[in-house]
Design a protein that fits this description.
- The complex is a heterodimer of chains A (1047) and B (306).
- Chain A has 40 helices and eight strands.
- Chain A is an all-alpha fold.
- The longest helix of chain A is centred in the first third of the chain and has 32 residues.
- Chain A is elongated and about 115 Å long.
- Chain B has one domain.
- Chain B contains eleven helices and one strand.
- In chain B, helix 3 packs antiparallel against helix 4, helix 5 runs antiparallel to helix 8 and helix 5 packs parallel to helix 11.
- The longest helix of chain B is centred in the middle third of the chain and has 32 residues.
- The chains are: A mainly alpha (1047), B mainly alpha (306).
- At the A-B interface, helix 31, helix 32, helix 33, strand 7 and helix 36 of A face strand 1, helix 3, helix 4, helix 5 and helix 9 of B.
- Strand 8 of chain A pairs parallel with strand 1 of chain B.
Chain lengths: 1047, 306
């Protein structure tokens, strides 16, 4: 084992010798430089490994003297961990900067080594004065390193850094002196053991000065303008060291000093951290410069980690306990790796605008890395940040610290906004030029990307420990395989995914029971069906299949989740996969963003709900425990409900849906509309079957949900009739359809749930059918506007039949399966006595006729356009699943009992009363009756008789040409003018104008504006003037002092 | 419960035959009355028969495609469907049609079936006037159905059943038991809905012969038109029978049924004579502005009373 003191020895030695060697050869000095960095990694790494395996920690006093004369170092497990990380970062960053180092003067090598040595010292030292010395070494080396650059901006930023650092050093030095005076020691450990001596006024102020100095180095809001300038303008390799390395060291120093702090100071630190986290993210909202954006994010993340650590200690956890390091360590690793990686990427792209980063798309591996880092920062699985955040929320909730959770989640949400917007721009924007790729620059990024993935997997084993069913591993392994196999042609990957989904369904179906069977059919068998259209694509379709598999993995995970953690992880994996699928559409960027923001917001509400559940239910993660909730029932219900309802797109939370579903690719729209929406419903079923009634104040939540569902049906359908875009029409129709589902569930009766669950299955069938058929049309005619189509029945008869069956099933007209739902709605409304809501639902259902007709008329009937005369029928891969679904709809129509009976049987467990009574194919309620098969026969009979009659009577009729119509003996105008399709229901709009105003969109826009403009306003604080920044720092110090200690 | 025997098909056919003739005769008589009121001589009362026979004997030589065929078929299936699922004569074993296979909700949705189907066929014709007519027609139907569904819900609340036979049964024993007397407001709502569905002024802009040549059926002629005319004599009668059943105590024999049908039918005729035509947006607004609040009041009162 090499003594860590050699790190310092090597640097000090090389500092003198490097110039000499450099005279001989630059390559020699570079070799030694890298050798030194590698040896640091080896030294700290080997200590980390041996300490992990139980070796005793090492305390060093150099030369046998006591400090301050000597250097007092400690190499414990945590020190080894931090030094290993920072040294590894140092090595990688140096590799990243290789070309720069080769070109620049040898001094930059020396300075770089000094920074790394300083960081090591900061982490290992146990002596306050040493701390000061190492801080100075690090800082001065960093200023100089920045100063070497000839870039003016970088230079001024370095100067501001120096001023701020100078002030911090002054505070630190004065504080140290007075601490020495009060306690008689400079050693931190002795100081901790005699912490009583520090309760004097001098002691407290001295401590305050030390802490505030370290805080300044950690860039607290608002005293951090200088730091932002540094992040923005300094070379990316160096910034990676500052943002990840030095920040890590300073964080660790802060952690080291926490035993000295009293309650007041701890609160102050936590509060500053929280404010920094929140405001940094708020201010970043309007930021357009990528490096400055990363700066905001960095500062915010450091604030978060600081808060989390201190809050956990305040909550009574022991400093070095596993849970504290699990959480703050997870967040830290997440930030450390992702931020360094992103800063490195920034150095490669070298663009000043977020949208210019779109050129990343030229390099799939870098794009993948970028996505990994962004998703890690947002806190999505399978990255460490996700698991740490989960554990954090559970832990804090168990301690009743809800306030902290709320602010942390709010800040995280703000962070998600700008990160996702950035990701969207990268994925969708146009780009002009490529960037130069050098191996030395990419290697570090890839290593960190892999590291974060491995750590994510490792973290998942830690957090899932105790939940022996690691449900997501098998499908996630397949997802990973697909990422590796992404170079294969599309048909191979499609076949693989279909096979894997089918096999996995086969594996998990035996585990499903009750209503989960229905969802199993929708999620998995439906999933396989909707993968078939994938064969229409040619080429490679990079980045599609891993995410499809991810979405299905999440959906399958939902089905077999037994704990809240499994459910939430599956939920987030599903969200992540679906986001990428949605954003693939040509114009999907804003819609995918809005989808994802609602999803993330909803997920945070769920997370808080699960946290509350965890706290009131004796720290149980079991999903079943939902049924035993006795406290805070209303709040839990509301929070979980909010999460699920965003996915179900209930009115108010629906604005993401039309764009997201409407703009998605041909085969993605049916997936997200027919399958994904049901995930929200699945969640609601879990929630509502456990908690039957919940109240907030006087408001009964299921009752409110009933109204929400009813209004969703009405407004969703009403909006659908005004759409010109066929896919948006279907998307709005889905909003309305899911309203039925919600209404049915909210009734909380046997019949209500039966309606809801069978309607869900039916919706899956007809909506997938319609989206596939319309998708095929859109593919062929290259427009989504219905008024630009028309007369396509002659060109695409098979698609026409699909749409015809689809709209009959949708509209609920007998004899097809949709009628079952309508019939049950009437009965259940009467049974429950919710007449007013029920009538809103029913009237909403009437409006559905309008868009159903418009869809089929404007697309397939009327006048064929000249430019569509050569259009062909949709590809066979699109038609096959359609006809399977038509078959299923017909089967369901003739034998409704086939589905209704088994569903009714298992619903009897939940709601024993009010089941349908079956007699020879007729279903009876206490009010009415209905025989699906018989109706089908009678209707079919009449239909066939007259159809055949007409056919027979007019057997000699000839098909006439398109324009051969009764037109006052004139020839009709162009098909564009003869086809009445545009603004088809104008009179409806005129009659009900105010009802179709986009109030909800306006509301969310206003909310968004509020955050963005307040962020933009506060951002003006940062003038870029060094003097102003000093003022900020001084005011900050004073403010913190007065707030902490009072006047 | 269910006792389906093939012989019922014969009974059903017979009742269709009767109602078909009633429909044709009422059409003729109403037109005749209208003419006499307007000091004209008017048509012969059996003119609709002649028109029908003429249309059925014509052979067309053109068609616009399969969907064009399906339009009238859908329409007539809808009309017949409505009729076939309503029990006609209370207490009679012969004239119950197929009402054992579904209740009033089925009937309600069959009303939409025809509208949607016709709209499809008319669309295939490719005539812009057809499309305009359909757009108007569907929009108005969805608004006019509002009082209808509310009224049916009100009936169901009052009688606690969706079965038309049971609703009629509950009204037996004298005029005092009719819904008209027991729940007059509900009946008013129902009669408003009746107006909306009869294609007479003020809600007849869909066909609007003066503005656009006969609306959706513009492209239909000969046998197609014949089928549509057949439906036009069955469908309104079916709806009227439904109203007789749910508001006016049903009928225990054909004579009473015919009297009631005629009287109810005349209600729409009277209103049509008095009020001028609404534009579609006006009629939609009318239903939302007056019929919907009335419906809310009716439901409220019905829940209080029953």
């Amino acid at each position: 084992m090499v003594d860590p003191i050699y790190i310092f020895v090597i640097v000090l030695g090389l500092a003198f010798l490097l110039s000499l060697f450099d005279k001989l050869s630059r390559n020699l000095s570079l070799f030694l430089f890298f050798l030194a960095l590698a040896s640091f990694v080896y030294i700290s790494g080997s200590w980390f490994i041996s300490l992990l395996s139980g070796k005793e920690e090492l305390i060093i006093f150099t030369a046998g003297f006591k400090p301050p004369v000597s250097i007092n170092l400690k190499m414990g497990l945590i020190e080894a961990f931090f030094t290993s990380l920072t040294n590894f970062l140092g090595l990688l960053s140096a590799i990243y900067l290789f070309r720069k180092f080769r070109a620049e003067a040898v001094y930059s090598l020396i300075l770089y080594l000094m920074i790394i040595m300083g960081i090591n010292g900061l982490i290992m030292t146990r002596d306050l004065f040493n701390l000061f010395v190492f801080l100075e070494i690090t800082s001065i080396a960093t200023y100089s390193m920045i100063g070497i650059s000839s870039d003016l901006k970088s230079l001024t930023a370095g100067f501001k850094y120096m001023i701020a650092g100078g002030i911090a050093s002054v505070f630190l030095l004065i504080g140290t002196i007075y601490l020495y005076r009060s306690s008689g020691t400079l050693n931190i450990d002795s100081m901790i053991s005699s912490v009583g001596l520090l309760t004097t006024k001098t002691g407290i102020i001295a401590l305050f000065l030390v802490i505030i100095a370290i805080m300044i180095e950690l860039k607290p809001f608002p005293a951090n303008g200088w730091a932002l300038d540094v992040y923005q303008s300094v070379n990316s390799g160096v910034v990676a060291i500052i943002a990840s390395g030095i920040s890590a060291a300073m964080l660790f120093v802060l952690f080291k000093l926490t035993p000295l702090m009293n309650e007041n100071l701890l609160t102050a630190v936590a509060g500053i951290g929280l404010a920094t986290f929140f405001f940094s993210n708020l201010l970043a909202l309007k930021q357009e410069n990528p490096k400055r954006l990363l700066g905001y994010s960095s500062i915010g993340q450091i604030g978060l980690i600081m808060t989390v650590y201190v809050v956990l200690i305040k909550a009574g956890f022991i400093r070095d306990s596993q849970i504290v390091w699990l959480i703050s360590g997870g967040l830290f690793l997440n930030h450390f790796l992702a931020k360094a990686g992103l800063f490195w990427l920034a150095g490669i792209i070298k663009k000043e605008k977020l949208s210019d980063w779109a050129s990343l798309r030229t390099s799939p591996i870098l794009l993948f890395a970028f996505g990994t880092f962004i998703f890690a920062l947002i806190g999505l699985p399978p990255f460490p940040g996700f698991f740490a955040k989960w554990q954090l929320v559970m832990t804090l909730a168990a301690k009743g610290m809800i306030f902290w959770i709320v602010i942390i989640l709010l800040g995280s949400f703000l962070e998600a906004i700008y990160l996702l917007r950035w990701l969207g721009k990268v994925l969708k924007r146009e780009f002009q030029e490529k960037f130069a790729i050098h191996f030395s620059r990419i290697l570090p990024i890839i290593i960190f990307m892999l590291l974060i993935l491995v750590l994510g997997a490792y973290y998942s084993t830690l957090i899932f420990a105790g939940n022996n069913l690691n449900i997501l591993y098998l499908p996630m392994l397949f997802v990973f395989l697909l990422f590796i196999l992404d170079f294969l042609p599309v048909w191979i990957k499609n076949t693989l995914t279909i096979a894997a989904t089918a096999c996995y369904s086969y594996l998990i179906f035996p585990q499903l029971a009750g209503y989960k069977n229905i969802f199993g059919v929708i999620f998995l068998i439906g999933g396989v069906l909707l993968l078939i259209p994938g064969y229409i694509k040619k080429g490679k379709r990079m980045g599609f299949y891993p995410f499809v598999a991810m979405m299905y993995a999440g959906l399958a995970g939902l089905l077999i989740s037994k704990t809240t953690l499994q459910l939430f992880t599956s939920w987030e994996i599903m969200t992540l996969g679906s986001y990428i699928l949605i954003i693939r559409g040509k114009k999907s960027e804003p819609h995918a963003l809005s989808y994802m923001l609602f999803s993330v917001g909803g997920a945070f509400a769920m997370l808080l709900g699960f946290g509350l559940l965890f706290s009131v239910n004796g720290n149980s993660l079991a999903l079943d425990s939902l049924a035993n909730v006795s406290q805070a029932v209303g709040t839990i219900y509301l929070l979980l409900g909010l999460g699920f309802l965003t996915k179900m797109a209930s009115i108010g939370l629906h604005i993401w849906l039309p764009g997201a579903h409407g703009e998605a690719e041909t085969d993605v729209s049916p997936m997200v509309s027919a399958i994904l929406l049901k995930a929200g419903m699945f969640g609601m079923i879990i929630l509502m079957s456990a908690i039957h009634s919940a109240k907030i104040g006087f408001v009964s939540l299921p009752y409110s949900l009933g109204w929400l569902g009813a209004i969703t049906v009405f407004l969703g359908n009403l909006m659908a009739i005004y759409q010109e875009d066929a896919k948006r029409l279907l998307a709005y129709s889905s909003v309305g359809n899911l309203g039925y589902v919600l209404f049915g569930l909210a009734l909380m009766t046997h019949l209500g749930w039966l309606t809801s669950i069978t309607y869900a299955l039916n919706h899956f069938l007809f909506k997938a059918l319609l989206f596939l058929a319309i998708g095929g049309v859109v593919m062929r005619v290259k427009t989504k506007n219905m008024y630009e189509m028309g007369g396509l029945i002659k060109k695409m008869p098979l698609s026409f039949i699909s749409v015809l069956i689809g709209i009959i099933a949708l509209s609920g007209v007998p004899p097809l399966s949709g009628f079952a739902g309508k019939w049950m709605i009437y009965n259940v409304v009467l049974e429950k006595g919710w007449y007013f809501q029920g009538l809103v639902v029913i009237i909403g259902g009437l409006i559905a006729f309008l868009y159903c007709f418009r869809l089929i008329y404007a697309v397939f009937l009327g006048q064929l356009k000249d430019n569509h005369r050569q259009v062909k029928e949709a590809p066979i891969a699109l038609l096959i699943p359609q006809y399977i679904m038509i078959f299923a709809i017909m089967l369901f129509s003739v034998y409704p009992g086939f589905i209704l009976q088994p569903v009714g049987d298992f619903l009897k467990e939940l709601f024993p009363q009010g089941a349908l009574i079956w007699n020879e194919g007729s279903a009876f309620t206490q009010f009415g009756y209905w025989n699906g098969g018989l109706i089908f026969m009678i209707t079919g009979g009449i239909f066939a008789i007259f159809f055949l009659l007409l056919f027979f009577l007019n057997r000699k009729a000839q098909k006439v040409k398109q324009f051969n119509i009764v037109y006052a003996a004139e020839r009709p105008s162009r098909p564009e003018l003869t086809h009445v399709g545009y603004n088809f229901f104008a009179h409806y709009k005129k009659a009900l104008g105010s009802l179709s105003q986009p109030y909800v969109t306006k509301f969310w826009d206003t909310m968004s504006d509020l955050f963005h403009s307040s962020g933009d306003f506060v951002r003006r604080l940062y003038t870029g003037n060094g003097q102003t920044y000093i003022l900020h720092i001084l005011l900050f110090v004073l403010a913190v002092y007065y707030i902490t200690f009072g006047g | 419960m269910i006792d389906f025997q093939p012989v019922k098909i014969l009974y059903a056919l017979f009742s269709i035959f009767i109602i078909f003739n009633i429909g044709l005769l009422i059409q003729g008589i109403v037109r005749k009355i209208g003419a006499r009121v307007g000091k004209r001589y008017g048509i012969r009362f059996y003119q609709p028969y002649i028109d029908l026979i003429k249309n059925y004997s014509l052979r067309t030589s053109i068609t616009h495609g399969i969907m064009f065929y399906l339009g009238p078929v859908f329409r007539l299936t809808g009309g017949l469907g409505v009729f076939l699922f309503i029990p006609i004569i209370f207490g009679s074993v012969y004239f119950q049609n197929f009402s054992f296979s579904g209740d009033i909700i089925l009937v309600l949705y069959f009303i939409f079936f025809g509208a949607l189907g016709m709209a499809l066929g008319a669309g295939e014709g490719g005539h812009p006037y057809s499309a305009i007519g359909v757009s108007r027609g569907l929009a108005q139907v969805t608004a006019a159905e509002i009082p209808l569904v509310i009224a049916i819900m009100g009936i169901a609340i009052q009688y606690q059943t969706f079965s038309v036979s049971e609703i009629v049964a509950a009204q037996q024993g004298g005029i005092a038991n009719w819904t008209m007397i027991t729940n007059p407001l509900l009946t008013i709502l129902g009669m408003v809905a009746y107006l909306g569905s009869m294609m007479r002024s003020p809600f007849d802009v869909v066909l609007a012969p003066q503005e656009i040549p006969i609306g959706p059926p513009t492209e239909y002629h000969s046998t197609f038109l014949g089928i549509l005319q057949t439906n036009r004599s069955i469908f309104p009668m079916a709806k009227t029978v439904l109203f007789v059943n749910i508001f006016f105590g049903g009928a225990t024999n054909w004579f009473i049924l015919i009297i009631k049908i005629f009287l109810i039918y005349m209600w729409s005729v009277f209103v049509a004579v008095v009020f001028p035509r609404f534009r579609v947006d006006q009629s939609i607004r009318w239903f939302y502005k007056y019929a919907l609040p009335l419906g809310a009041v009716v439901i409220f009162i019905t829940t209080l009373l029953f």
